[in-house]
Amino acid sequence: MPTAPHPQNTDELYQALQENDRRPYGRTRTVTAEELVDAAEQFAEPVPLIQALLELQEAYTYGSEPRKSPVVFARLLTLFDEQPDVFDERLRHLLFWRFKWVSNALRALPEIPLASLRQWLTEMRDRYEKAGLGLQPYYGQAYQLAAHLGEDTTLAHELWAARTRTRLSDCEACEICERALYHLTAGDDERALRAWEPVLAGKESCQEEPARSLSYALLPLLRTGSADRARELHLAGYRGCRRNPSMSGEVGRHLEFCALTGNEARGLELLAENRNLFDEVDSPLDQLDFLTGVEVLLQRVGLLGHDELPAAGYPGRTWTVAGLRAEVRGRADDLAARFDARNGTTAHTDRRRARLDRAPLLDALELTLRTRSLDDVAPAAPVATPAARPAAAVPESLPELILRARALEEQGHPDAQACWARLRTLAAARDYTHPEDPAVGPLVQLRADLLAEEANRAGENDEFADAAALHEEAAALYDDAGAPGHAALSRACALLATAEIPVEGADGAEAKAAGLTAAHASMVRLQEETPGLAPYQEARLLRLRATALGLRLQASGSEEHVLPVYAEVDLLHAFATRHDIAGQLSGALLLRASTHAISGDLPAAVTEIDALLDRLKAHGPDWHLPRALGLRGRLQLGLRDAQAACADLTEGLRLAADWPADAVDTSRLHGDLAEACMQLGRPDEALRHLTRSAEADLRRGSRTDAFCAYSNAAQLSLDLGRVEDCIALLDSLLAEPDVAAGEVDDRLVAQLRLTRARALHTGEDLKAATAEFVTLAAESAGWDDDPGSHAMIAAEAAVLLGESGEFGRAREAADQALAAHARAPRYEQLSNCLRELARLQAQQQGSDGLADALDLLSSAGRIADEARAAEYEERGRSLDTALAYEHGRVNAYAGEYEDALAALEKALALLGEPGPEKDRAGEWAECVRLAGAVEGIYMERPAPALTRLDAAVSRLTVLGHTEETEPLISLAARLRDEE
Q1: pLDDT tens digit string along 87-143?
Q2: What confidence tens digit (pLDDT) does each residue in 259-304 have?
């Protein structure tokens, strides 16, 4: 089935070829290229066919289909021999360049005899000599064959490297890689890295570079002690080759790097991301390289005892690590043997064995912001829990275990969780026999206990509907067991959980407050109507009552709801004091401090929490200390004392490590510490705490909270300039199964993708960034409840399309943004977008783009008028002055210098004279600089321009803005030199 309309003339064919050239390499591009060759054959002209064949050979070459590339080239060579005159200089250059592509393709096919490889090199040499071309490219191919064979490489290298480069030589980046690999093969890591430096530093690049060099340089960097740089280049290099069939060998080396640096879990994650390579790589040599890297990874995972983990492999079946390793080993061994049989050497088997025999180079190298272990990638496994105090020993005797669990639960002790977990396992067994012990009670009571504990965990994860249902079920079982006090507690918990179920709509807070009022009233009746309550049960009911009113105050913020909370807290405090219930006494003090904080009296809250901390240190319970310290830390943040907050939160985390991991909300502690570190100007520490907060959320099953924390971490890493860290983190999150299956909130996923698109743009991957923004703009067009976000996304997409030179599509995206802006104004974003589009069009198209650029600025002018009418206060530059400046810049790009100068004079008038504000002084200085350049350079009026510049320098100097004077002084010096 055709992938595109059949071109009816050569113009349509050339347009189709251009469109196909913009597609990524892969099956779609290749199939389209094949169809376009068929279409080109209908025309009598040979040149369209030559162009189509060149595109097809490129698609085969970079789509990893080496068997087909030589066939296409044979057709091109025949056309050249028959009609050499139709090959202009460009086509002739391309033809002779691609002799090297055929050499590479033939080497990659073990079924091609060695004699045929040598014969092709002879053909290449003869053709080059006949055409009067230098032979350095031929000797380069001869060296690459020698390196492939593993024989006579020294002589071949000298014959190639000593020759002067020609127009047909491989690019500098590719030749640098070959020279570095020569030294690497000789065992000289440091010399190889010195040779690679221009590529590793980004000074030389091409279609395949630096991704190819980066993959080879990773292990030498580790061996020479440059682990940090290896980490950096792994992140950048992997992004350049992932899922690319023509770079499957590079992907394999990144998998190997993960295996040798203690990052086996990341390796399995990357393997899953590249599962397409098992099916799409047609090059046997690339397959061998990729499969060997895969085997290094799988071998390492197996050695660590995880053979039964699932692994992404060949399509058509599911794989374990052990099963895939056996399959990969068999295929890779066969490929290596076939190459060695063809070549008459053992080079490929030897190289493969050397890779498989390498020992890990580092025990652990933190590659990404999301550090994971093999335990984390097990099916349905929670994130591995960090080291913490082991739970107390669980009694072996079943009656003792049940009684111990209930006693600890009565105290609210964290060790109760381990007992309940053990009991849940025992009770679920088919052969479970309940002890006949009056002290233990009937089986139905244990079932109720386990349901109540499960309900509590659901509530902690904000799964309120589930919690309410489980508590109701537990209450019914307690009734059956003849335990009315426990039944009352479960029903009270169900009331609170039901009231906490989120209410949608504008009146959600009011409805929630009403629900909590009703829940409290029901709890009071429940406590009054339940006879024989034990003191700890009464205390817990009082705590639930106080909590309900505290949540009501939090939801409503109403002053009338403050005193009822204090009244309930006083009841709880008095009861807990009278019966010496330490945990509920602590809870009462904590609720009182929280109420002070919610009502806005932070100093009183701190005083209260200080008293609580003194009591906890003297009388316990110790496991309440981390929570109390966490609250004091948050209060200190509210009081803008980040240093004190940091100390409290850090101590809270330290003490939390003394208890089982689920006993303390370490996610909140890490999140608050991140905020404290940001206030203290320590963003790298903040980033670390954000990722640890996310990991803690994952451990307790709160994936939405975890993704939100990771989203904040990604944005912070981008703000810090850690672009590759940001992209790697987001790639990992977006590859999660529940994200791919659409089970995570679509707006949250869109935010992750938006941050990733911005990171790609910052990382100068304009093509990928633009594609993601365009996709997001299309998806967000359906967000009827949030047109403002669509306006923002579409505006950013428009700018990136403009940077790509696609001004028609950019204008369409800008029009979408304007339509959404009409529903939810985004004055600054839209003005910025339209001005930037105008600048880009004038800059790229000059006078030809002036009319469209001015039309864009007219739209920006209307935005400014709307903002003024709405009395909108700009957070950044004045929209009017920014617009006047842009009129000046756009007209200058188009050569309309009088209009440009007039616009800049208007901008300066709107700005007024500069004052002490640095930002305003900078904007004023830039207007003066551009006006001086237009007037002095392009209008050739240096005298008035110098007068303008000198006056501005004097004015800025007096105000202390010396940095802003530097570009003005530089321009003035240039004008004086040219006088």
Answers
A1: 999 999 999 999 999 999 999 999 999 999 999 999 999 999 999 999 999 999 999
A2: 999 999 999 999 999 999 999 999 999 999 999 999 999 999 999 9
Higher pLDDT, 360 or 27: 360
DSSP string, 360-405: PS-S----SSS---GGGGSTTPPPPPPP-PPPPPPPSSHHHHHHHH
| Amino acid letter, residue 946 | L
Distance CA 698, CA 869 (A): 48
C-alpha span between 17 and 32 (Å, rounded): 9
Q: Which of 835, 939, 813 has the alpha carbon at shortest distance from 843?
A: 835
Cα 335 from Cα 329, distance rounded (Å): 10
Backbone angles phi, psi at 917, to 5 degrees: -65, 125
For 504, residues 6+ apart whose C-beta sits below 8 A from its C-beta are none
How many angstroms separate the CA atoms of 646 and 389, rounded?
Answer: 23
The pLDDT tens digits of the residues spanning 725-771 come to: 999 999 999 989 899 899 999 999 999 999 999 999 999 999 999 99
**Sequence letter at residue 218:** L
Let me know the angle formed at the C-alpha of 802 by 799 and 808, rounded to the nearest 5 degrees: 115
Q: Is the pLDDT of residue 377 over 80?
A: no
Give the 3-state secondary structure of residue 945.
Answer: helix
**Helix (H), strand (E) at residue 259:** helix 248-259
HEC readout, 564-622: HHHHHHHHHHHHHHHCCCHHHHHHHHHHHHHHHHHCCCHHHHHHHHHHHHHHHHHHCCH
Angle between helices 248-259 and 264-273 (to 10 degrees): 160
pTM: 0.84
pLDDT value of residue 391 = 52
Instruction: Read off the DSSP letter of residue 412.
Output: T
The rounded distance, in Å, linking the Cα atoms of 273 and 38 is: 34
pLDDT at 378 over 70: no
- Contact status, residue 446 vs residue 423, Cβ threshold 8 Å: yes
DSSP secondary structure letter of residue 699: H
CB 837 within 8 A of CB 806: no
Residues 449-466, mean pLDDT to the nearest whole number: 93
Which phi and psi angles does 862 have, rounded to 5°? -65, -35
